[in-house]
């Protein structure tokens, strides 16, 4: 069952001599429950793809279809509702509020989505039940990233999007985060889509979308994804 379809998507910034084609006629599909890596170097267009999928940007041309609905035609209000109901975001630098505890950072999701899941349960799922009363400055980078994952999960999203979620972490902590995200796909049925320049992470994915210069270089289905413990980092 297709969760995501990009149909001949183009994204252009600027006009005239300053025009930049960030995404150039990109097409791909992603199945429900897959763990997908969009791979490429800086400037490849991968984050722009993620932003369009997350409803934070819209294509210049083409369609972005999620669960059979063309979100590229949505109004600003519809996109806001889509982000609240469907998407869980994980960022490179966590984006936690420093004046709130881990629990409070996750519980804030209730302000966005009234049907949000229990902050206590989500922190337990990411292994941080005993850290709930700590503030971000009292936690390691890996712990902060796991709080941000718990926050994303609290929305009970169909799709989890990660923008270089291990980019600020050391290799061992990064492996813990990737292992958690992989299990969200395999054990909980979330569709997880990460952008990264790290080719080793891609070995853990069901599908690898390799981008270069705004175009799709290749799309590979990985029948036997590796455990994160089996890759060199």
Overview of the molecule:
By secondary structure, the protein is α/β, with parallel strands linked by helices. It has one domain (32-58, 75-230): P-loop containing nucleotide triphosphate hydrolases (Rossmann fold). It has helices at 46-53, 76-86, 102-107, 119-125, 141-154, 171-186, 199-202; strands at residues 2-13, 20-31, 35-39, 61-66, 69-70, 87-90, 159-163, 191-196, 207-212, 215-221. Strands 6-7-8-3-9-10 form a 6-stranded mixed beta sheet, sandwiched between helices. Strand 1 and strand 2 (20-31) form a beta hairpin. The longest helix is centred in the C-terminal third of the chain and has 16 residues, at 171-186.
Identify the CATH class.
Answer: Alpha Beta
Binned, the helix content reads: 25-40%
For the termini, the CA-CA separation is 32 Å
Q: What structural class do the secondary elements suggest?
A: alpha/beta
Mean pLDDT: 93
Spatial strand arrangement across the major sheet: 6-7-8-3-9-10
Secondary structure layout:
Elements (H helix, E strand, L loop, with lengths): L1 E12 L6 E12 L3 E5 L6 H8 L7 E6 L2 E2 L5 H11 E4 L11 H6 L11 H7 L15 H14 L4 E5 L7 H16 L4 E6 L2 H4 L4 E6 L2 E7 L12
Parallel strand pairs: 3-8, 3-9, 6-7, 7-8
Antiparallel strand pairs: 1-2, 1-4, 4-5, 9-10
Helix pairs in contact: 4-5, 5-6
Protein name: Putative ABC transport system ATP-binding protein
GO molecular function: ATP binding; ATP hydrolysis activity; transmembrane transporter activity
Organism: Ruminococcus flavefaciens
Brief write-up:
This protein has 233 residues and is of the alpha/beta class. The protein has helices at 46-53, 76-86, 102-107, 119-125, 141-154, 171-186, 199-202; strands at 2-13, 20-31, 35-39, 61-66, 69-70, 87-90, 159-163, 191-196, 207-212, 215-221.
